[in-house]
Design brief:
This protein is 17% helix and 40% strand. It is of the alpha/beta class. The protein has a single domain, classed as 4-Layer Sandwich (Purple Acid Phosphatase, chain A, domain 2), CATH 3.60.21.
């Protein structure tokens, strides 16, 4: 079993509470808009980090993290990107690939809206952890925490941090 802490859209701000909430996690996944490389470095020093760059990220992030990251965690095919849309409304850059070769878990950020949706057509769980940073229009900063056990995604928790 692999325990995952998922966040996005930190925009250069890391709440100390993130470290408490992700203490029991094996890995941290960041779905883009880190804000700066110091955020990524701080997270990577705490736990193994997987991430993708977002639209606000500069070359410091883009030289280390890709736009799209497709990988396997346990027996789950995962695709993480920053701007991906959501079931029935995937972005043009994602749409062709996701319909041809859907993952079991699709993760994106960008919208600052927490979403947990199951795409029945693709048999794919869609996760957007919302925004963990203070920049943006969201009212509450959010994270997700879950486990991957063989081919199952389990124990999904929504974590609300303080308001912006």
């Amino acid at each position: 079993m692999t325990k995952i802490g998922l966040l996005s859209d930190t925009h250069g701000y890391l709440d100390d509470a993130i470290f408490r909430h992700f203490e029991s996690c094996d890995e941290i996944w960041h779905a883009g808009d880190f804000g700066n490389i110091a955020i990524a470095d701080t997270l990577a020093a705490f736990k193994p980090l997987k991430g993708v760059y977002g639209n606000i990220d500069g070359q410091d992030i883009r030289t280390v993290y890709p736009e799209n990251l497709r990988f396997t965690c346990e027996a789950v095919d995962v695709w993480m990107t920053h701007i991906g849309g959501y079931p029935g409304h995937y972005t043009p850059l994602v749409r062709d690939t996701i319909y041809r070769h859907p993952p079991k878990l699709f993760i994106c950020g960008h919208s600052h809206i927490l979403k947990v949706l199951y795409d029945q057509k693709l048999q794919c769980l869609h996760l957007n952890p919302g925004a963990a940073g203070k920049q943006g229009w969201h009212k509450v900063r959010t994270l997700l925490r879950f486990s991957i056990n063989d081919n199952r995604i389990e124990q999904l928790e929504v974590i609300e941090l303080a308001g912006r």
